[in-house]
């Protein structure tokens, strides 16, 4: 450490530890830690249980999981369970909207069934964006499976 006058510090001075810059980029955790999708194949449905955050980093993985599930439906319904999601950002809303539209308009499938329970981080963005009038929302998986 050098003093303002360019001289080394005097004996009584302690060197201060170097603090990280507040603008230094912190390494993001792996995407697998931010969101996980478990697939359950049932005779009457394919259920995608999503856990974690659905944001700009993880929404493409959700889209891929939904697209993969489309390929396996074979007349069954697709249930996307978001009851364990802690954050649903606009990229997640976009993924749900485009996937719901694709299911019906392009693939001729039954509409996606989205389970949201009463989780505020999920329900609120859906309601604020007006998508609660477009998406088929259910409070639990059993409810989504009953409605055929």
**Rg from C-alpha positions?**
23 Å
Q: Output the strand order for the largest sheet.
A: 1-2-3-4-5
Give the end-to-end Cα distance, rounded to a whole number of Å. Answer: 72 Å
CATH superfamily: STAS domain
User: Average pLDDT across residues?
Assistant: 84
Biased composition (Basic and acidic residues): 12-21
Pfam families: STAS
Domain STAS: 35-148
Protein name: STAS domain-containing protein
Explain how this protein is built.
The structure is a single chain. The protein has helices spanning 31-34, 59-72, 90-106, 120-128, 141-146, and strands at 35-41, 45-54, 77-88, 113-115, 136-138. With 148 residues, it is α/β, with parallel strands linked by helices. The protein has one domain (32-146): Transcription Regulator spoIIAA, CATH 3.30.750.24. The chain has a five-stranded mixed β-sheet with strand order 1-2-3-4-5. α2 links the parallel β2 (45-54) and β3 (77-88). The longest helix is centred in the middle third of the chain and has 17 residues, at 90-106.
């Amino acid at each position: 450490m050098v003093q303002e006058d360019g001289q080394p510090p005097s004996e009584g001075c302690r060197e201060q530890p170097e603090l990280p810059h507040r603008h230094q980029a912190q390494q993001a955790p792996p995407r697998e830690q931010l969101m996980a999708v478990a697939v359950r194949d049932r005779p009457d449905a394919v259920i995608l249980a999503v856990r974690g955050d659905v944001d700009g980093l993880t929404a493409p993985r959700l889209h891929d999981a939904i697209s993969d599930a489309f390929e396996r439906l074979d007349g069954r319904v697709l249930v996307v369970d978001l009851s364990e999601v802690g954050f649903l950002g606009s990229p997640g809303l976009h993924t749900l909207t485009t996937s719901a539209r694709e299911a019906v308009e392009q693939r001729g499938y039954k509409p996606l069934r989205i389970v949201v329970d009463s989780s505020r981080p999920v329900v609120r963005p859906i309601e604020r964006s007006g998508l609660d009038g477009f998406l088929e929302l259910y409070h639990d998986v059993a409810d989504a499976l009953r409605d055929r």
